Amino acid sequence: MENKLQTVLYFPELLLTLGCLLLLLISVFLKQEVFKKISFLSVILLFFVSLSVLKDTTLTFAFYNSFFKSSHFILFFKILIILGSFASITISINFFDELKLKRFEIPILILFSTLGMMILIASNNLMSMYLGIELQSLSLYILAAINRDSLKSSEAGVKYFVLGALSSGILLYGCSLIYGFTGSTNFDEIKTVLLEFEKLNLGILFGLIFVLVGLAFKISAVPFHMWTPDVYEGAPTAITAFFAIVPKLAGIALIYRFCLEPFGAFIDEWRQIIIFLSIASMFVGAIAAIAQKNLKRLLAYSSIGHIGYLLIGLASANSDGIKGLLIYSTIYLLMNVGIFTVILSLKTKDRYIEFLSDLSGLSKKKPIYSLCIAIVMFS
User: Fold this and answer.
1) Does residue 159 surpass a pLDDT of 70?
2) Where do runs of H (alpha helix) occur along the chain?
3) The model's pTM
4) Which end of the chain has fewer beta carbons closer than 10 Å to its terminal beta carbon, N or C?
């Protein structure tokens, strides 16, 4: 009985939540160089959160078993998310300093978004999944429009918010259908109920489709990718780096868990959708990238193409597919950090490079940077 009542609340999320709130309080009382100090403290906080994830520390004082779970898959992606956020904050400090956009809210919003991603990755319930998605998304909307002096940044924020709200509505409607036809929001209970069916009824099938469409918006899989190039181009480059590196991995991890856990017995029902999203993303991502002149739009289509490759593992629906996902995700994280670090290190005529034409003659002026770009792009 005690084992059944024993409850699990995950310590890393609690530590990150308290850390975010504490940093908000500190930032109010600090008067000089607030942005750099908060960024430095944010990096330290993420380091300690990563240690707590590696230890898989748990506290046992509140009933959270039905909302969250832990596994090696979940812990691996939590570490990737934290590393991506760590790198994003680190490489953005000088960028925002030179842009005179030293707002202490930026690293704190990145932390809140990271918290949302950690929650959605570990979710074992439709409600906690949706709350994690919303916490992540709301922070990202603000980050996209953080440069209020830039018309492009404001436009990016509005586009992201409108389309993000639409996708959240679709996702929530899908969740309500699944709850209505199964009588539960818990992944394990949904799986148990579905095992009684020989085939999914129409209501549950529509719920599954709506949830997958909502998640496809979040990871910008084709044909739900229309916001990505505009948002990547309009947002400040350091924020674009965060968009490209971290939320995609969190969304992919959630799609894998959602399809393979509650709907693991009905692979044929969702496999066709995943195959279509995968092929369409690879095709459009590769073809549309050819015509791009803006470097950030090029990387946007590149990330769309990568989503297609990441979904191949889910379409295979076996352990080899999951292993492939873990390897590919790690390389994807490292290479994205690499290319954005180089972009944020290069300037031409006192402005950061933004167009492919800005790279002209780079091998003669800065051969080391040129070599780094070549290695990362070939990867």
Assistant:
1) yes
2) 2-5, 11-29, 34-55, 72-98, 105-122, 126-144, 151-182, 187-194, 202-219, 228-234, 237-245, 247-260, 267-290, 295-316, 319-343, 362-365, 367-378
3) 0.89
4) N
